[in-house]
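Bit of a strange request maybe. I'm writing a small parser for structure token strings and I need a real example to test against, not something I typed by hand. Could someone generate the tokens for this chain?
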Amino acid sequence: MPTQPSKNLETFDNPRPESDYTIRIRIPEFTCLCPKTGQPDFATLHLEYVPEHTCIELKSLKLYVWSFREEGAFHEAVTNQILQDLVTACEPRFMRLRAEFNVRGGIYTTVVAEHRAPHWHPPTPVQLP
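Reply from user aminoacidic:
Good idea to test on real output. This should exercise your parser:
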């Protein structure tokens, strides 16, 4: 196989570091294993972030997400681990990860985790008439 799962997250220089802008990434094929049963858990990850100096490179993100496929993890733990790894890799001004897990036993789980750099304050939203 030419590519393999990897925990290595690559970044590239933010092309507009002077601007606050949002990058939104939807990852519909996340899988990990239930730590109790070993059965697969499926989720759609929604990543939103305001970059500082670097941005996450998408192929490395794909391989990183793939690396969880054979790992057992509770939804809360894996969501927070992914957020922390992404924050460590690119040190964004703001980052939010929402993990929407598919139904299991009649229960849907969504976990939302956030990071905000201490020096960053979001701009005031524009209210249009």
